[in-house]
């Protein structure tokens, strides 16, 4: 048998493919799969309850390594404004390509067959995800709209209050000030406003 490069152990074994049955390979494989499964489990929770957040360049550009495909994959899905957490990971794990490669990976590494299905998102799950994400995004947009309207209302009422203050100053203070400081009459209204921090 020729030398065999193992992607899990990241080394060449000169005893050939028999390497994968060895204790060292099997225990490394277990560690890899346990860690990988944690990420998948976390993502899976988002199928029933997707999490949508405002885009964050640091948090939402994360990638993950798919051992089955030997490929780096985007973790979240975003349009640069809103992010669906774990969306890209779940989508990747529902593709035909990932499924085929997962079967191949399990066969090649002689991994525990009981675990295999945990690394594949079924068509039904993918469909459910799409529906839930659509609903959650709609709710998110509604909430954002309400928030924007509320902020606009606050700004409007602040502006209204400002104008009221200005009006009362004109009526009450300015005439008095003009008597005390006659030069104010010559100042343009904008300068007076600045002086009064209005
Ligand atoms: Zn190995
Ligand atoms: Zn994959």
UniProtKB/TrEMBL annotation:
Originating organism: Astyanax mexicanus
Top-rank lineage group of the source organism: Eukaryota
Stretches of the chain forming a coiled coil according to its record: 119-150
A Pfam family assignment: CCDC84
InterPro entries noted in UniProt: CCDC84-like
Protein known as: Centrosomal AT-AC splicing factor
Keywords, ordered alphabetically: Coiled coil
């Amino acid at each position: 048998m020729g030398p065999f490069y193992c992607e899990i152990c990241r080394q060449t074994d000169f005893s050939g493919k028999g390497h994968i049955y060895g204790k060292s390979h099997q225990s490394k494989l277990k560690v890899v799969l346990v860690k990988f499964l944690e990420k998948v489990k976390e993502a899976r929770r988002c199928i029933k309850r997707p999490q949508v957040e405002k885009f964050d360049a640091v948090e939402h550009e994360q990638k993950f390594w798919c051992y089955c495909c030997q490929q780096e994959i985007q973790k979240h899905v975003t349009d640069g404004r809103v992010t669906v957490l774990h969306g890209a990971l779940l989508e990747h794990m529902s593709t035909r390509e990932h499924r085929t490669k997962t079967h191949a990976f399990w066969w090649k590494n002689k991994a525990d067959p009981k675990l295999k299905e945990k690394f594949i998102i079924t068509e039904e799950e993918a469909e459910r995800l799409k529906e839930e994400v659509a609903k959650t995004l709609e709710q998110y947009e509604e909430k954002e709209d309400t928030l924007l309207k509320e902020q606009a209302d606050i700004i409007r009422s602040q502006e209204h209050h400002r104008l009221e203050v200005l009006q009362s100053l004109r009526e009450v203070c300015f005439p008095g000030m003009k008597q005390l400081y006659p030069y104010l009459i010559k100042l343009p209204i904008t300068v007076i406003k600045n002086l009064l921090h209005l």
